[in-house]
Design brief:
With about 350 residues, the protein is of the alpha/beta class. It has twelve helices and 13 strands. The strands form four sheets. Strands 3-2-1-4-5-6-11 form a seven-stranded parallel beta sheet, with helices on both faces. The chain has a two-stranded parallel sheet with strand order 7-10. It has a two-stranded parallel ribbon with strand order 8-13. The structure holds ligand G4F. The site of ligand G4F has 21 residues, from helix 7. Ligand G4F binds next to helix 7.
């Protein structure tokens, strides 16, 4: 199995699952910097790291050639939405055209050249599509048929990748699918995303290490689930008889305000005493509300989320309480710095 984006939250959970099922796992990492970065989350030593970059076609061909995978999971992206306005070209190249490059690498290495079923030699391909593609939503809840209206360069790039996967499936008969995943979180979530920002702040304020939390749009609503549940769905999608795209989400929507309330109540605090609205954190265009209709995944994959929103928030706050109490060294200090 070959995974791009293996150092991110989903890559770590997916690699864990595939290793536990006895698969050999290769991860694509960007050059020496990623491999040596002291802040990077430690990966399981069984994972074989290959140098490669979604910006570089030949490096991806080399990675696929070396790994000879049965399955390729493209989780690599510039995934923090606000950055995509400041680095729109890079976002388009990594998150959008990067999908084309890795698809091409798979196609070329497998020797697929015509509109025929590629047969056993072509690896199955999973693309991490995103509910950000729905953006200014046309209907609620959103399913596989809902029209896309992305609101950020990130969302636009994801739409490009999504359609490229569909095109390779239709043009070359490749087993290539997209999972349209709604927000999924965990204690491994990066500290820039709102759930982790909130769990870190609740824990830090409770422990007397910090005194306020600045946030952007408190009214935004998301369908938040647990990342571990979602990587299970990715593996299930590639185990189907026919390649099909699936929406994964809980079908439950909460606002950022409700998230904050829950996290602070978990540590016995009233969020109103600590949270400050910061206009600097508002986005040029917002995705106001997302809610998944995962009935196709529930019926065809037998997939359902196991962790509720309340359990997820408690899990994240508890993990940050442990992190900040036990380890005030490098990792904890780096996390606290993101709140300042
Ligand atoms: O946690 P977020 O940054 O996640 P967002 O933008 O929904 O994107 C995440 O989920 C997508 C799936 O739909 C992924 F494709 C994507 O890669 C990423 O994983 O923000 C969630 C909401 C937004 O509406 C934002 O405006 O929270 C609001 N928010 C309010 N205050 C904030 C903050 N977001 C962040 N990051 N930081 C704040 O202070």
């Amino acid at each position: 199995m070959l995974i791009t984006g293996i150092t991110g939250q989903d890559g770590v959970y997916l690699a864990e699952q595939l290793l536990s099922e006895g698969y050999q796992v290769f991860g694509v990492v960007r050059g020496q910097r990623s491999v040596c970065d002291p802040n990077r989350r430690p990966l399981r030593p069984e994972i074989k790291l290959l140098s490669g970059d979604l910006l570089d076609q030949s490096s991806l061909i080399a990675a696929v050639e070396t790994a000879q995978p049965d399955e390729v999971y493209n989780l690599g992206a510039l995934s923090f939405v606000p950055v995509s306005w400041r680095q729109s070209n890079t976002a388009a190249q990594i998150t959008g055209v990067g999908v084309l490059r890795i698809l091409e690498a798979v196609r070329v290495v497998a020797g697929v050249t015509a509109s025929v079923t590629p047969g056993a030699n072509c690896p199955r391909f999973y693309q991490a599509s995103s509910s950000e593609m729905f953006g200014k939503v046309r209907r609620t809840p959103q399913n596989e048929q809902t029209v896309f209206h992305p609101r950020s360069p990130y969302g636009v790039a994801k739409v490009f990748g999504h359609y490229m996967v569909q095109n390779y499936r239709e043009s070359y008969g490749m087993f290539a699918v997209s999972g349209i995943l709604f927000n999924h979180e965990s204690p491994l979530r990066g500290p820039q995303f709102v759930t982790r920002r909130v769990s870190l702040a609740a824990a830090a304020i409770k422990l007397g290490l910090h005194d306020e939390l600045r946030l952007g749009n408190l009214d935004a609503q998301r369908d938040w689930g647990f990342a571990g549940d979602y990587v299970r769905g990715m593996v299930q999608m590639l185990a189907q008889d026919r390649p099909e795209d699936f929406v994964l989400g809980t079908g439950v929507t909460n606002s950022v305000r409700e998230l904050v309330d829950l996290a602070f109540r978990h540590v016995g605090l009233d969020w109103r005493d600590y949270v400050r609205a910061d206009p600097g954190l508002l986005r040029p265009a917002e995705v106001d509300s997302l809610c998944a209709d995962s009935s196709r995944a529930r019926q065809k994959l037998g997939w359902k989320p196991e962790v509720s929103f309340e359990e997820l928030v408690a899990m994240m706050v508890d993990a940050d309480l442990r992190l900040l109490s036990d380890d005030r060294e490098m990792a904890a200090e780096a996390m606290l710095a993101t709140l300042r």
